[in-house]
RNA sequence: GGUCUCUUGGCCGAGUGGCUUAGGCACUGGUCUGCAAAACCAGUUACAGCGGUUCGAAUCCGCUAGAGACCUCCA
């Protein structure tokens, strides 16, 4: 519990445009809502970045001892498409093309999404609600807005009245820095526009066209809920009318999150969210990954290496580490070269991790300087994380620790640290890597049999060296490296690592 | 067209008024080794351009150039 007290987190609040002291609604508890995927196709790496960013955020809160309720929705209905078949549900379109039930599509890609998230070692949310599972609540929220005069019905559809909302003290545009008057004049001509009082008004309920397969009954028409409603409904239902953190990708800031604020405020007379967090985009070839433009990379292509952009296959853990090396609010460009560099650094980090996990601590005479240095490094890790989850800076500190760990290991001098300092080092270093960053060593290739086999070869090589039979000892070393096993000669004997 | 953001060394990527040598990768030298690798130590390369504010600016302001995001479904 004291860890919470010792670590005051500052969060960059998109709503205010600055870092703010994090004070939860309920002491030692965090309620966080993250906009989940629209399940009409495979999630790509760009989608993954956002979810992994917030996975790190949730993990850090938990690491400090907060009780976290993490809600991340599945959007399985309601998003409109803006090409030839305007007004049609994305999911419905795909369903017809593939001659499948809409829910079959939803099921397939939900499963895919879960598999991908698992492979990245992302923690599952506490609640993963679906839009279709909350239609009653959505209809109720529309009714509330209508009752308050902040929404109006038009031709079977219901729209949110932004102008009225502004007149009653609303601040539509505050999150995304937009001027409502400009939006009123600058909006494009979209289908259904004539039903609206003003171009900025957005749909709460849409009457379904005959081609629209996903449809439900409502007091106004057979149709489907508006694009922004589900998050408002599910966020407040599970986290309260005013909750701590709402996260999502930068691209959702406008209009999605702007509308969410308006809906929430209209329904409950309070700002629904205290801290808005927006993760930045993962780019490919300098441009944002996007389903609609096809500029994407799928996780499975990464693991198999089957993409012209990739020189080789990469593991999920390396990709995760790569992403953590950049701050979540910065654009990150994906490239094979950058990933290769990360992979090498990651291995170095994990080697030190293994050393620390296995080392036997025996106190010797105290080295005050080193003792203080380690304590400072540990404190710095927390300080960097507390500063708007600055993972790249935290990682820089971890690498400083790597140098220390390696030196201590080589000189067998962990004992020069106080026992409490050693424990702190282990807890901080290993805790940040595995608990907060969710990084796990790739031990896929190693097991007991392998370990014994390689140990046998190490012994044989040692004997060959003793007899100065370097041809044999080098052959063992070189052939092992060709297989992917690297021998490491140290003062205390030879160890190995598996590629 | 409107709104906004970014431009850091060979590459990735932090930083934000005066020592951060950020860190990683790569490279160079050294220690270790039978030779290597690994590890450690040391070192090199920088703040898009121009002008301004300031005792001092990569960091603040302005202009120019380039890139990107949002304005429409999108993490």
Characterise this structure.
The chain is α/β, with parallel strands linked by helices. It has three domains: 276 residues, Rossmann fold, CATH 3.40.50.620; 154 residues, Isoleucyl-tRNA Synthetase, Domain 1 (Orthogonal Bundle); 51 residues, no CATH class. The protein is built from 17 helices and 15 strands. A four-stranded parallel β-sheet has the order 4-3-9-10, with helices on both faces. It has a four-stranded antiparallel β-sheet with strand order 5-6-7-8, with helices on one face. The chain has a three-stranded mixed β-sheet with strand order 12-11-13. A hairpin with a 2-residue loop joins strand 11 and strand 12. It is elongated. It starts with a helix and ends with a strand. About 1% of the residues have low confidence. The structure holds one RNA strand of 75 nucleotides.
Task: Please describe the topology of this protein.
Elements: H1 2-6, E1 10-13, E2 18-21, E3 29-34, H2 45-64, E4 67-72, H3 90-98, H4 102-119, H5 135-147, E5 151-154, E6 157-160, H6 162-167, H7 180-186, E7 202-207, E8 223-225, H8 229-239, E9 243-249, H9 253-268, E10 273-279, E11 282-284, E12 287-288, H10 299-304, H11 316-324, E13 332-334, H12 336-358, H13 368-386, H14 391-411, H15 419-436, H16 448-466, H17 470-483, E14 485-490, E15 493-498
Parallel strand pairs: 3-4, 3-9, 9-10, 11-13
Antiparallel strand pairs: 1-2, 5-6, 6-7, 7-8, 11-12, 14-15
Helix pairs in contact: 2-15, 3-4, 5-8, 8-9, 11-12, 12-14, 13-14, 13-15, 16-17
The structure holds one RNA strand of 75 nucleotides.
């Amino acid at each position: 519990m004291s860890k919470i007290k010792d670590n005051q987190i500052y969060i960059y609040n998109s709503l205010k445009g600055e870092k703010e002291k994090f004070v939860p609604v309920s002491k030692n508890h965090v309620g966080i809502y993250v906009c989940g995927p629209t399940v009409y196709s495979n999630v790509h790496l760009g989608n993954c970045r956002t979810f992994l960013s917030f996975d790190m955020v949730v993990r850090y809160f938990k690491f400090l001892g907060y009780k976290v309720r993490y809600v991340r929705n599945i959007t399985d209905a309601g998003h409109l498409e803006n090409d030839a078949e305007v007004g049609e549900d994305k999911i419905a379109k795909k369903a017809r093309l593939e001659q499948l039930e809409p829910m079959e599509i939803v099921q397939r890609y939900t499963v895919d999404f879960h598999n991908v998230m698992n492979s990245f070692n992302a923690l599952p949310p506490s609640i993963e609600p679906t839009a279709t599972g909350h239609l009653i609540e959505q209809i109720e929220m529309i009714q509330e807005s209508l009752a308050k005069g902040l929404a109006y019905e038009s031709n079977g559809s219901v729209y949110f009245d932004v102008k009225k909302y502004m007149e009653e003290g609303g601040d539509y545009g505050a999150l995304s820095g937009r001027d409502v008057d400009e939006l009123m004049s600058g909006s494009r001509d979209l289908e259904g526009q004539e039903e609206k009082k003003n171009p900025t008004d957005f749909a709460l309920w849409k009457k379904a066209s005959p081609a629209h397969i996903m449809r439900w009954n409502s007091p106004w028409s057979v149709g489907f809920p508006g694009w922004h409603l589900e998050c408002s409904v599910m966020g407040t239902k599970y986290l309260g009318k005013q909750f701590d953190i709402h996260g999502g990708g930068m691209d959702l800031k406008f209009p999605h999150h702007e509308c969410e604020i308006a809906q929430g405020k209209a329904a409950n007379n309070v700002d629904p969210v205290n801290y808005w967090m927006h993760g930045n985009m993962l780019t490919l070839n300098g441009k944002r990954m996007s389903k609609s433009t096809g500029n994407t990379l799928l996780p499975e292509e990464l693991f198999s290496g089957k993409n012209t952009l990739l020189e080789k296959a990469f593991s999920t853990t390396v990709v995760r580490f790569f992403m953590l090396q950049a701050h979540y609010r910065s654009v990150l460009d994906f490239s094979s070269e950058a990933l290769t560099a990360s992979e090498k650094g990651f291995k170095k980090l994990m080697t030190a991790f293994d050393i620390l996990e296995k080392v036997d601590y025996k106190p010797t005479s105290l080295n005050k300087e080193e003792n203080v240095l380690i304590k400072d490094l540990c404190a710095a890790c927390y300080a960097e994380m507390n500063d708007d989850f600055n993972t790249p800076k935290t990682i820089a500190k971890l690498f400083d620790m790597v140098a220390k760990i390696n030196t201590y290991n080589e000189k067998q001098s962990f004992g020069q640290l106080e026992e409490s300092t050693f424990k702190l080092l282990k807890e901080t270093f290993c805790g940040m890597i595995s608990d907060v960053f969710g990084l796990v060593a790739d031990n896929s290739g190693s097991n007991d049999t392998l370990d014994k086999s390689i140990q046998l070869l190490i012994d044989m090589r040692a004997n060959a060296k003793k007899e100065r039979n370097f041809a044999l000892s080098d052959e063992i070393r070189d052939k092992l490296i060709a297989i992917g096993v690297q021998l490491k000669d140290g003062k205390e004997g030879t160890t190995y690592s598996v590629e």
